[in-house]
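Troubleshooting: if your tokenizer reports a length mismatch, compare your output against this known-good record of 139 residues.
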Amino acid sequence: MTNNNDHYEIRVGVPSVDTYRHLRGSTGLGARPVEAATVGLPNTWYGVTVQHGTETVGMGRVIGDGGCFFQIVDICVLPDHQGRGLGKRVMTALVGELERRAPAGAYISLIADGDARHLYAQFGFVETAPASVGMQRPV
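Known-good structure output:
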């Protein structure tokens, strides 16, 4: 039996603005405005994409100040490619880079949507509530 993961490659980097918006929009994360993505993507501390042939089918990024605070964002895999362990491969790459390069004592956070918390728990992430809760303020 062929392993479906053999046809996927994790690459270091970030997708193009158009691909980024497509991935977010197609996975329920919501496409970010072109202007925001154009400014934000180059400021990624570390990012990976999931390639299936010539198509980018997933991604994940770490953003932050490079010393004290890091946040894992944009973890997504297109629906037709889900269920193959690709999200886990993305997280493995991101967490591995954080373990290699982030200073000791750095605060690493993420926002877990729905059942994604089960994936993140496999990498040592724990809920912060009730001591703290995630908050947002749209601009």
